[in-house]
Amino acid sequence: MALRRLLSLTAWRRFEAAARRGFFRNAALELSVTSGAVSQQIKALEADLGIDLFVRGARKVQRTSAGQYLQPALTDALLQIRQAVDELRPVSAKSLHIAS
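The structure corresponding to this sequence follows.
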């Protein structure tokens, strides 16, 4: 299967975080960006796809049926990327893990 042009991985990560968290603000905090940055990237995705991914409310956003369809697939894909990258990273013998 040929890969057609997709918007940046950053835009997809922002959509996935917003869809999972239900708030652009919470997605922004998770990703260390502004709420406006999350909103702009999602608007760009929606324009590129030609569909709405969210219904925007006064304080919360809700996924449309398209957003509900895409979110689990994106979450799984991002987790697979994270796992693959983690497997490639060398394990440092000098790691120190502290939990409280």
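The chain has four helices and two strands.
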